[in-house]
Amino acid sequence: MSRNITRSIVTILALVMVVTSLYGCGPAATPAPAQPAATSAPAKPAATSAPAQPAGGKVKVGLSFSDFATERWKNEQVLMEKLLKDKGYDVVWQEANHDVKLQNDQIDNMVTQGVKALIVIAEDGAAAVTAVDKAAKAGVKVIAYDRLIKSPNIAAYISFNNTEVGRQEALGVVKALNMEGGKWTTANPVKLMKMGGSPTDNNAILVRQGQDEVLKPYIDKGTIKVVADQWVDNWDPANALKIMENVLTAQNNKIDAVVASNDGTALGALQALKAQKLAGVVPISGQDATADGCNSIVKGEQTVSVYKDIRLLSPLAVDLVDKLLKGQTDPNLKKYTMAELTNDPKNAGDVMAYFLPVVQVTKDNVYDLIVKSKFQPYDDVYRDIPADKRPAKP
Ligand code: BGC
């Protein structure tokens, strides 16, 4: 889904909010969502003053987002809100602009407003436990969406196969390096940078685990040498850019490959690589198959992304909410230990979870996989590509 679409949706939502607040005639049972620009929103939970759910009114479901900086989250908010409303639920949502405390306040706040279920994309899987445990104690069904929350009190965790995401990222980079081609030897190893995601996001840990699995044999053999290993706070592209600049300076630009963990951070790193004329020379990975990431792939700059179809994950979350609120369960959910999900034996308890498959994206399959399936619009993927160099519009 394109940023343009997202932007128009944000604009429409903002207009609706202005109109609703001007005339005070919004649908009674559907409080206006939190301001999309929660960026500057004060921690003071505006919704505490919202009227309690009227007797016989619709059941309310809350959505809590870590941020809207990464392309996918706004799209998922719009999609889940629609799907929930189609099923007859009222929806409230909040976005925490990477602020861990604000996210907990917003969750508390939605519980006060009477939500019966919460879908949470946690900024910090450990910090969110405080608010989520309170919610669960109040009888609210909490679904950890895409990112694990380290509480056995969540009703379920649904995500993609995050370890596989990491494997596919590293495999894409390794393939581009042509490790078997003879150029890379123990005397001339690949100088590799590992760029992890946000250290407070369990997905970043799982992704790293998958990357390491693929890289280990080469590192053990000595044909790949890790010259830099960093994590990017908040998955922020601006942080990634700075980190990459520093690494390039420290290594005298002698970097042969970057295993980055998502498209946003890969594109940040690519800016630094571009400034040193290394874009398109140094293989680099990402995930999400974002519009910009795919565009970078067709331009030959980003090497590989990983497609995770959010159009499947969001309905899954909504169906699960619906089932849980009707006292049913989902046969797809399987029991996992918190220890195995976090790669940390200290974490106790079990979680019911379900994981969707992921697919590697490169310039060879981006058209079939991403454009034809309408995951990203043709015009976004082929932005700046001359008409005679583009494939036919599907
Ligand atoms: C998600 C990625 C996303 C990243 C940054 C991760 O938890 O799995 O899809 O790119 O967060 O928002």
If you had to describe this structure to a student in words, what would you say it looks like?
The chain is α/β, with parallel strands linked by helices and 394 residues long. Helices cover 41% and strands 16% of the residues. The chain contains 13 helices and 12 strands. The chain has helices spanning 3-23, 71-86, 100-112, 129-137, 162-177, 202-221, 237-250, 263-275, 291-298, 310-325, 338-342, 366-371, 378-381, and strands at 60-65, 90-95, 117-120, 141-145, 156-160, 190-196, 224-231, 257-260, 305-307, 334-337, 350-356, 359-361. The chain has a 7-stranded mixed beta sheet, with helices on both faces. A 3-stranded parallel beta sheet has the order 7-6-8, with helices on both faces. Strand 1, helix 2 and strand 2 form a beta-alpha-beta unit. It starts with a helix and ends in a 13-residue tail after the last helix. Residues 1-53 have low confidence and may be disordered.
Strand content: 15-25%
Query: Uncertain spans, ≥5 residues at pLDDT below 50?
Result: 1-53
Helical percentage: 40-55%
State the secondary-structure class: alpha/beta
Radius of gyration over all CA atoms, rounded: 22 Å
Q: Could you give the order of strands across the largest sheet?
A: 2-1-3-4-5-11-10
Summed up, what is this model?
The protein has 394 residues and is an alpha/beta fold.
Topology record:
Layout: H1 3-23, E1 60-65, H2 71-86, E2 90-95, H3 100-112, E3 117-120, H4 129-137, E4 141-145, E5 156-160, H5 162-177, E6 190-196, H6 202-221, E7 224-231, H7 237-250, E8 257-260, H8 263-275, H9 291-298, E9 305-307, H10 310-325, E10 334-337, H11 338-342, E11 350-356, E12 359-361, H12 366-371, H13 378-381
Parallel strand pairs: 1-2, 1-3, 3-4, 4-5, 5-11, 6-7, 6-8
Antiparallel strand pairs: 9-12, 10-11
The structure holds beta-D-glucopyranose.
Beta-D-glucopyranose (BGC) is lined by residues 70, 72, 146-147, 197, 201, 203, 235, 262, 287-288.
